Hints:
Blueprint: E1 3-11, E2 16-17, E3 21-27, H1 30-48, H2 50-56, E4 58-66
Antiparallel strand pairs: 1-2, 1-3, 1-4
Amino acid sequence: MKFILTMIMCTSVYNTCLEPFPMPERYNTHYECMIAGYQESIKKAKEIGSQEINKYGTIIKFFCMQEKDFPKKGQAT
């Protein structure tokens, strides 16, 4: 079973989050998905930059879910 990495970006200043964003790549194990989540989080943080991260209190969260458990587009969670 494949795993889907889903990223969520939030701001602690405004206490809001963007909609969860499922990444296109699929992973063979939960471990591979988790490592990719940390790597993508670091990549995104560097992309945004320290000034913006500090200004908005940006938080980057992620989770890994088995593809079979992932809600289909338009399906209620």
